[in-house]
């Protein structure tokens, strides 16, 4: 039988994400949370069980997952860990690991397996496929059956699993998340303090400044409480902050003293430390920059042509003629109406991709045309030749009564999106047909309202 | 007559770039520099005149452009500016503007027009098209004929021209270049100081950390002397450094005190200052990240298929079967030999683009096949139908002797890259032809050695 899974704080964020994911995988899932109304809604939405009693949820689970915000994780572990059944598995999914690992080990009963976990993704991720999940169990728990089960489950779901001790995790995350957030938030605060007009400054921008501004914008727009906690609950962060401030001060001093050689030495040493990663960085950022500029250049080539515009968030698709591009916006014209779209928020389709989308999303009309061909003609070869020029199928083949001897009637169906287009296609089709040995029998246009 | 242009320091870097560009535009160009051997080579390479006497170059030019490194710009201006002819134009192309502007105004004779200039691009740029060029003339010189000429020239070349006072330029550049370089060099030094294994750290990386690492790698790999000078010669840089260090210290203190609300306030205020630019940043960085991950996903789909790989630097093209992808490398197989390419250093082509490249770069073989069609058949329509399935042309049309009455002979030429491929194509071609009213006359394969 599949284990029963209790998710403490499963009514929100990544906890809710796991509740849905595991429920869909066929597990029996209980979620707990303080807010009864929200809990009832999640119960209905996901088809899981809800309780507002964390301890009860902890008592019932074969697997108990702590999924509360970082700042209350320690308190909630102390509250529920002693109630987890012997033989059960206790996990947390916080972005820091040293504190939760120690607290779970200390407060869980003997016989409870502890696997502190850090899923390196947010609740907008569709599945575990290719996502990084970090596990930081003790040497003892690493040998447990539960660990094997968790590991195998994650691997089967396509996740990239990394196993390291909790303190090493926090040091690396102190860099990967902590230093990154810290530096960009500080940059954002600096630009505010210096009262820099961001939009204006982009006029002068190198692609790298543009990238930096984007990352700052991205980070300062996130949930500030989560970002505060990622800084505040990482025991390694002070050392990292201090080292960064030291380096900033050192370089600032060097610049003040116009000590060129000292400045050059710092850059060279950093570059040496990076080794081949410095070159990789140049290549990688080139690609990122190039991807963005070439998107705009490709768009410019499409002005005056038909395109489809798909909103990245809503997935809604719009068809029309690309009229113009200015700044971050493109203008689409359809039946004389103009609509503006933020280029950064849409995917643009043209050519073959546009045709595919039209077939999928627009109502096609069609015309049927019957053509006489000699009996020994292979209609599949004819169709193959025509497929490149027309959206076309064969809907009927007929020999016998009313058909000249030695001939067969092949009825082609040509699709289009309006009457004018179909008329043009019909003409072109007949012109081709008479050059490849076909004779028109009769044609009729169907569904031609517009 | 076109003005004579003297470029002081025109044997290297952006000075040499302008020498080439202006020479190609038909100007009479003199370059000066200290290194006689280098100068002689540039003279030969670009077809310009060289002198190792800066003063002489300055005396001769109708336009004199100072293009020496930042750290010697002031000294060279003092040396040459007094020798620029009355009625001439004096410019510099340094990344800082306050010091050169003041020095040029002070040392140039009355009657010399001064236009301090900052071209926002490097010598790897192909042309002025879409490049940003900043001009920082005084109000007086802004009214001059020379200014109109320069402005119009840049506009005609497709550059984006920005006109601002030199001190405002230095402040904005202190942000756009100065703060950006400073922050990323400090980050690089920090990662070195903390002895972070960069490659290892990327395993844990979020896309944003990956971007940050790339930008650091890119910046610390540049010419450190140029980067030192950009910091050291900008009069606004101290204030910017200090503000940044203050913000870092303030946030570090807040984190140490676990003052969540203060942290949240800083993020929110920065976000408010960014306004709609915060969201734009999120969108823009999304696109950058997506462009990179989707490139890898698209590559994965091409495994086992024929592709072309073009080296971004050398433009050399390789054809082969994509065997595998690991880390940053792809393996290409050709005639049993395998070759590895850094994915970040190549563009990959498949499908239609691959076909275009093959036609351009590989030696095509061909086969000619003569087919009898009725006289009234339009061979252009037949060719159009076949073009999608074959690399094909019509090379001869013949009626008369030896040809059945009422018929004409159309000779098609089908191209391919080897004998086997051509044989297959011939078979397919004949199968099609007999279904569309054609009769084989004769065929011959040419250039079939392999």
**Domain unit count of chain A:** 4
Ends apart, CA distance between termini of chain A: 60 Å
- SS element count, helices of chain A: 17
The chain-level structural class of chain A is: alpha/beta
Task: Classify the fold: give the CATH topology of the largest domain in chain A.
Answer: Rossmann fold
Low-confidence stretches of chain A: 446-450
Strand percentage of chain A? 15-25%
As an assembly, this protein is: homodimer
**Greatest interface:** A-B, 121 and 122 residues
Number of strands of chain A: 17
Biggest sheet of chain A, strands in spatial order? 3-2-1-4-5-6-7-8
- Name of the CATH class of the largest domain in chain A: Alpha Beta
Q: Nearest-angstrom radius of gyration of chain A?
A: 32 Å
CATH superfamily label of the largest domain in chain A: NAD(P)-binding Rossmann-like Domain
**Main beta-sheet strand count, sense and barrel state of chain A:** 8 strands, mixed
Give the overall pLDDT of chain A as a whole number.
92
CATH architecture name of the largest domain in chain A: 3-Layer(aba) Sandwich
GO biological process, one term (chains A, B): tyrosine biosynthetic process
GO molecular function (chains A, B): NAD+ binding; prephenate dehydrogenase (NAD+) activity; prephenate dehydrogenase (NADP+) activity
Keywords (chains A, B): Oxidoreductase
Protein name (chains A, B): Prephenate dehydrogenase
Give a verbal description of the structure:
Chains A, B: It comes from Methanocaldococcus vulcanius (strain ATCC 700851 / DSM 12094 / M7) (Methanococcus vulcanius). Chains A, B: GO terms for molecular function: NAD+ binding; prephenate dehydrogenase (NAD+) activity; prephenate dehydrogenase (NADP+) activity. The structure is a homodimer of 450-residue chains. The first copy, chain A, has 450 residues and is α/β, with parallel strands linked by helices. Chain A has 4 domains: 4-163, 3-Layer(aba) Sandwich (Rossmann fold), CATH 3.40.50; 169-258; 300-351, SH3 type barrels, CATH 2.30.30; 363-446, Alpha-Beta Plaits (2-Layer Sandwich), CATH 3.30.70.380. Chain A is built from 17 helices and 17 strands. In chain A, strands 3-2-1-4-5-6-7-8 form an 8-stranded mixed beta sheet, sandwiched between helices. A 5-stranded antiparallel beta sheet of chain A has the order 12-11-10-9-13. A 4-stranded antiparallel beta sheet of chain A has the order 15-16-14-17. Chain A is extended. The interface between A and B is large, with 121 and 122 residues.
């Amino acid at each position: 039988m599949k284990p029963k899974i209790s998710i403490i704080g499963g009514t929100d964020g990544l906890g809710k994400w796991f509740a849905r994911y595991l429920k869909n995988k066929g597990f029996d899932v209980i979620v707990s949370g303080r807010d009864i109304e929200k809990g009832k809604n999640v119960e209905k939405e996901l088809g899981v069980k809800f309780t507002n009693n964390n301890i009860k949820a902890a008592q019932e689970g074969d697997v108990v997952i702590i999924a509360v915000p970082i700042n209350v994780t320690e308190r909630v572990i102390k509250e529920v860990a002693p109630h987890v059944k012997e033989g059960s598995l206790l996990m947390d999914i916080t972005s820091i690991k040293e504190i939760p690992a120690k607290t779970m080990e200390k407060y869980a009963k003997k016989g409870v397996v502890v696997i502190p976990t850090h899923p390196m993704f947010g609740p907008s991720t569709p599945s575990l496929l290719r996502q990084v999940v970090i596990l930081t169990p003790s040497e003892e728990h690493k040998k447990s059956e539960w660990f094997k089960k968790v590991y195998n489950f994650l691997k089967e779901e396509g996740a990239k699993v990394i196993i390291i001790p909790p303190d090493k995790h926090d040091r690396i995350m102190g860099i990967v998340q902590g230093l990154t957030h810290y530096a960009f938030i500080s940059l954002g605060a600096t630009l505010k303090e210096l009262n820099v007009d961001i939009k204006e400054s982009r006029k002068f921008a190198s692609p790298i400044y543009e990238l930096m501004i984007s990352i700052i914008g991205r980070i300062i727009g996130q949930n500030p409480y989560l970002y505060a906690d990622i800084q505040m609950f990482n025991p390694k962060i002070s050392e990292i902050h201090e080292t960064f401030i030291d380096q900033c001060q050192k370089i600032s001093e060097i610049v003040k003293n116009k000590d060129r050689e000292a400045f050059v030495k710092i850059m060279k040493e950093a570059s040496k430390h990076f080794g081949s990663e410095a070159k990789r960085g140049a290549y990688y950022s080139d690609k990122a920059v190039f991807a963005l500029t070439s998107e705009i250049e490709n768009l410019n080539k499409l002005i005056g042509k038909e395109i489809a515009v798909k909103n990245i968030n809503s997935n809604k698709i719009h068809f029309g003629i690309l009229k113009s591009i200015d700044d971050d916006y493109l203008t689409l014209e359809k039946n004389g109406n103009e609509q503006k779209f933020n280029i950064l928020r849409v995917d643009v389709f043209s050519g073959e991709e546009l045709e595919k989308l039209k077939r999928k999303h627009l109502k096609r009309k069609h015309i049927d045309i019957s053509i006489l061909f000699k009996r020994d003609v292979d209609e599949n070869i004819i169709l193959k030749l025509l497929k490149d020029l027309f959206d076309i199928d064969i809907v009927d083949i007929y020999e016998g009564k009313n058909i000249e001897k030695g001939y067969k009637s092949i009825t082609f169906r040509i699709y289009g999106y309006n009457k004018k287009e179909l008329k043009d296609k019909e003409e072109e089709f007949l012109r081709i047909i008479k050059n490849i040995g076909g004779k028109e029998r009769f044609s009729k246009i169907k569904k031609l309202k517009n």
